[in-house]
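quick one
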Amino acid sequence: MPLHEPTAGSEWWRSGIIYQIYPRSFADHGGDGMGDLKGITNRLPKLKELGIDAVWLSPFYTSPQKDAGYDVSDYRDVDPLFGDLNDFDQMLERAHELGLRVMIDLVPNHSSDQHEWFQSALNSKPGSKERSYYHFKDGKGENGELPPNNWQSMFGGPAWTRVEDGQWYCHLFDSSQPDLNWENQVVRDEFEDILRFWLDRGVDGFRVDQPHAMAKAQGLPDHPYVAEAGAGFIEGRESPPMWFQDSVHEIFRSWRNILDSYPGDRAMCGEAYVLPLSFMALWVRPDEFHQTFNFRFLDAGWDQEKLISAINESFEAFDSVGAPSTWVLNNHDVIRHASRFGGDYGRATASDGIGPNNPQPDSLLGITLARASTLFMLGLPGASYLYQGEELGLPEHTTLEPEFRQDPTFFRTNGERVGRDGCRVPLPWEANGPSLGFGPTAASWLPQPAGYLELARDLQEKDDSSTLNLYKRALEIRKELKLGEGSFDWVSTGELLSYQNQNVIVVHNFGKDCALPAGRLVLSSDSEQGDLLRSNQTLWLEI
Ligand code: NOJ
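structure w/ 1-deoxynojirimycin:
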């Protein structure tokens, strides 16, 4: 019996390719250097050509943009930076015409400090109804001058900020992102209504931000091992009071009911950083999320042992509850894989970025392994996430000067962690266009590195050996051979790491160049295929 049997259900989210659009950097229609919804609409046919099934849009809601839109001040409107609701509807209509599904980002753990609720909370007294939508508390110490507990922010520094009347509010991220109090029924009702607002407009689902943080332990006790874990947790130890609280599950059950009450296969993906995956499996039980991101796979990097165990653990955990495993190598929070695999940059999800003062990646090794790892991933059964620009083999911008930095991580750590701006640089569409075709003018909210010119999409379209064409072929073959719905079993776990899905063998060479394995060559991650299976190469072979 294979480690994973062919997928049972036929819903699209079990095997689909979901492409993440980061609206700020995808395509700028207005010419102000900031991507927008009209820009997305115009470029959607290019994504159809790529061969994806769905897009997920990072936040485009009204926001002061203190955390690039993950600080929402109005959940039912579009920020003027990106357009308006009419532009959203047109984008959705165009996507659906092209047969693409659209998932949008829902940010329920925290709002912006500019949200009307938080503003009224600030103008209301301690103990008021308005303050109960967030976590306001008195401080410790003689005059309440110390934070209520020892919690740290994920972006560095304490997770508490003091307001004028002396109370403190909790923010697991930036101080401009106060955490909502999910014990409060009004908060729950409000978000159910927000879900319906977007489902009524026709969205196909949601990617849910930080769901594992939404419920906090009663009384907000101290993090029991903050000195070792900082803002995070240590796998295998007790859950800290801000992560993975059991009471959170009833929220997702109620959301699942709402999604299920709409026609079509609407789906929710949780950005749940929950480990081990046997614990994560609780989040994708049949009445909760349809899928969650597989951070175990992302964090495995390109380490053979870690990959093997991540894949084994994934099938075991997700199959046990009938959920698909998802796979991912890139997103807007991690160093792009074409750079990450060109050096030793630690855990992918550490959000530390690469700056001009860090060791620079080996770009040839990086792109070789990026192409190889992508082919390895796209052969796996389950759903896969792609992040805009990876299909062009874009590297991280690793020499971005401090004056361009916008990520709060950079500011909250005094530049010690450069943060995530390097993976968020506007896309190069045309080698000859101003801002490389990102928009009609030269404006670009983050400068594009010189190396992006030769990676422009229009050049790659004409080059058979380009990374873009490798992605297109892989997605086409994946669909044709139904690999997404397929099965999985290891063939060898030595230096040649290979698995079988249907009648395709996917093999990656962690060792030295060697003879080609048996089978009809279907696809190779190297731009030229000789008589050997080269080191760091991945092949798809039909048997
Ligand atoms: C996860 C998002 O992916 C990240 O970009 C954001 O900063 C945090 N959640 C806070 O919303």
